[in-house]
Design a protein that fits this description.
Length: 114
């Protein structure tokens, strides 16, 4: 008797989980034998990998442009002021520090700006 009750609880839990998944959307497909099978829609990322890649690329272009516009000495002075600030400013200084990719972009953009 206990085994039957445990099996029933497992089936109910499985149905509740499927019901919650179907509340977010579902798709219906007809199999070759004519049976309509309904499955919950898969969760997708809100941000596509392509848009994330483009954002990171634009960020490095921005850093390279700012570095080429200000010059390395002025850029480092401003980063030093950020490093002496609050925790958020310190995090910004770490993100905006000069890296090899930004330096290469700056070297390429620099002659165009001057």
């Amino acid at each position: 008797m206990v085994d039957c009750h445990m099996e029933f609880d497992r089936r109910v839990a499985r149905l509740n989980k499927k019901h919650q998944a179907m509340a977010r959307g579902y798709t219906a497909r007809m199999r070759s034998d004519g049976l309509v099978v309904v499955k919950p829609r898969r969760m997708r990322f809100a941000i596509s990998p392509r848009s994330l890649f483009l954002f990171i690329g634009a960020f490095f272009l921005f850093k390279g442009f700012i570095l080429a516009n200000l010059g390395a000495a002025t850029y480092d002075d401003r980063l030093d002021r950020l490093r002496n600030g609050t925790a958020v400013e310190k995090a910004g200084a770490w993100v905006m520090q000069i890296d090899p990719l930004s330096q290469v972009i700056s070297d390429q953009i620099g002659p165009v700006l001057r």
